[in-house]
Amino acid sequence: MPDDPSPPAPRLDEVEIRLTHQERTIEDLSRTVAEQWARIDLLTRQVAGLSERLREMVERPVSAAPEPPPPHY
């Protein structure tokens, strides 16, 4: 029999408390990762949209004649 002075009940309580804290931490981390993926997805779509707009602007022919000044100029 080992020479462990602490009875099993308090040790079991300590293990259950640590497990509860670890489960909460895992849930918090999981929620954070899900939020980050949602944000990454949004940003990825925004970058794709901006890239498409930039490509369209580059492909659009530039007019050779400058715009005339407004009438009040």
Can you walk through the features of this model?
By secondary structure, the chain is mostly helical. It has a domain at 8-56. Helix content is 71%, strand content 0%. The protein has one helix at 8-59. The longest helix has 52 residues, at 8-59. The model has no long low-confidence stretch (mean pLDDT 89).
Low-confidence stretches: none
| SSE order, one letter for each helix or strand | H
Tell me, rounded to a whole number, the average pLDDT.
Answer: 89
The radius of gyration over CA amounts to: 31 Å
Shape: rod-shaped
Please tally the β strands and state the result.
0
Pfam families: SlyX
Family: Belongs to the SlyX family.
Keywords: Coiled coil
Protein name: Protein SlyX homolog
Keywords for this entry:
1 helix; rod-shaped; mainly alpha; 73 residues; coiled coil; 71% helix
Task: Compose a concise summary of this entry.
Belongs to the SlyX family. The protein is an all-alpha fold and 73 residues long. It contains 1 helix and no strands.
Write the layout of secondary structure elements.
Blueprint: H1 8-59
